[in-house]
Design a protein that fits this description.
This protein is mainly beta. Helices cover 12% and strands 33% of the residues.
């Protein structure tokens, strides 16, 4: 059967390539995911933190032998490159910004069904690139060369990310949150079984000795809006409860104080509706739910 899916360019996304014989050992000491357990031809989610546990960036990470691909917001590639370069000098590894010579494309089916990433998924080799499939049915391609013949995405991809509960760290939110604040532990982006990495002490302490004071909720508006990341949110009494984490059209995600879910929120004088995410009910916060790598 021929492939009739139409792929669109995702211009806000780009790739950072990390290659060389020490790449696994280097990344294992820097990322929240278990790079050593990630098999070739698979992908998962991960993040890179400061020593204080705040995320510099989060991303999709795919592996081909000793080459790793990190897909993240285009505006974040240079910052992550610079951050990792401070540690890469001690390893036989090379960091290459692929923003200009590789493109990210995606296709969204007519109907998506949000689902958590429970284990690493296949990263398939295709002509001129690589392809992966999301649990909700979306397909994503990382392709070398230009994207002639492909039209830009019209916002469907960002909307599907929001339905999936995925928050991507941007330039505005860099070093704003620890991974658990954006539910990265539920999304499969943190390993609590691997060894030490930068920021690990803070991330592990929050998981085992404390409780996150933040939670992720979905937001809706009656009319299309352009809400900036970190726009403050208040409840109906004017009390500050959190901030917008991402927004597209009439929906978005927010990071708010844990323990409450107001049905109505305010972003300044703009009224918004809040709702829980698809995985909120019945989820176990214990470490026994960590996806296998």
């Amino acid at each position: 059967m021929s492939d009739t899916a139409v792929f669109s360019v995702l211009p806000d996304l780009a790739l950072l390539e990390i290659s060389g014989p020490d790449s696994e050992r280097f990344l294992q000491g820097q990322l929240t995911c278990d790079v050593a357990a990630l098999q070739a031809g698979r992908w998962t989610l991960g993040a890179c933190c400061t020593a204080k546990g705040r995320m510099v960036a989060n991303f999709v990470i795919g592996r081909q032998d000793n080459t790793f691909w990190l897909r993240l917001p285009r505006e974040q590639v240079a910052a992550l490159h610079q951050h990792l370069s401070r540690y890469a000098v001690f390893f036989k590894t090379t960091l290459t910004d692929r923003s200009d010579d590789w493109q990210v494309l995606g296709t969204v089916p007519a109907q998506t069904t949000p689902a958590l990433l429970t284990q690493p998924q296949p990263l398939q080799v295709i002509a001129d690139g690589l392809e992966l499939q999301w649990p909700d049915g979306r397909r994503e391609r990382w392709q070398a060369g230009n994207t002639a013949g492909h039209s830009p995405d019209n916002g469907q991809w960002a909307a599907a990310d929001i339905r999936q509960g995925l928050i991507w760290v941007t330039e505005a939110s860099r070093e704003q949150w620890v991974p658990q604040h954006i539910d990265w532990h539920h999304q499969g982006g943190i390993s609590f079984r691997k060894g030490c990495y930068t920021g690990q002490e803070i991330v592990a302490r929050l998981q085992y000795l404390g409780k996150s004071k933040k939670q992720v909720i979905q937001l809706y508006s009656e009319q299309p809006l352009d809400l900036a990341v970190l726009t403050p949110l208040q409840d109906q009494q004017g009390k500050a409860i959190g901030e917008v984490a991402c927004w597209a059209g009439q929906q978005g995600l927010a990071v708010i104080n844990a323990g409450s879910l107001p049905a109505a929120l305010l972003a300044g004088d703009i009224s918004l509706t809040g709702a829980g995410l698809f995985y909120t009910d019945g989820i176990n916060d214990g470490t026994d739910t960590e996806p296998a790598q």
